[in-house]
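Issue 218. Parser rejects a valid record. Input:
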Amino acid sequence: MKIAIAAAAGNVGSRIAKQLQNTPDLELVLLGNNADALKSLEITSATIVETDLSDISQVNNATKNVNALFWMVPPVVHTTSLKSWYEKLINAGVNAVQKNNIERVVLLSALGAGSKENLGTVTYSGFMEQSFDKIDTNVLALRPGYFLENLLLQKSTILNEGHFSFTYNGDHSIPFISSDDIGDAASKYLFDDKWKGKWKLNLMGPENLTPNDIALRMSNVLNKEITYKKLSISEAKENLKANNINTIVIEELIELFKALGDPYGVYNTPRTHEALTVTTLEDFINKKLLMI
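Output the parser choked on:
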């Protein structure tokens, strides 16, 4: 069996590669735009193919004779628009699956994908699902909640200044999930050649968390006071502008931030047993926040 992993140096892709690396009779193909980053995973049995995932020809060539494909749109902010970035990656992935007759595809989508317009990358993930669902192959869309790893973007502020920020109320809860759990689910279904059809799987972590919950539990683990400071939308926009992000992308990110904070929105999805994953906030703090 041959499995290709897009964005294999990222949080989810690297977890998949590490979970599958010692599987008998399995060949891994690691795709990404930086060969050195792929080599740093130290998965010596894998084939490394430096690939621009938005380039149809490169992706086609990199996925020849592949049985299963993990496909995702790597997060970027310095681009003309997130919508156009998604469109390029969707087209490249769909074309490769069709051209190379890939039997199984596991997509990294988003909780609430396909529900409505104007939700930023959640909406664009819905476009991706719709495009892959039109292909005559088996497709599983994993729909995770909000990544715990996004807190790593505020690591310095948390550890050195004792606070973190989002754009919603401190008592608003959403499902947080570790990228490790997403990678584990993707690994399972990439290697399993028994499932068929087109289906969706929500992945929502072990529990919903409010910022106030996170602050209290971080304080307990770190043995220092951590507080939550809510950002206004205008403050968030100014922070994004300060990072030289263009106006279109800023508006798309603000759409996502508003979706996160909507108490009746897509992140209010009911939990089911199948959506449960195991990595807790405390696990994340000890294994990642304090280690990276």
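Fixed in the parser; the record now loads. The mean pLDDT is 97.
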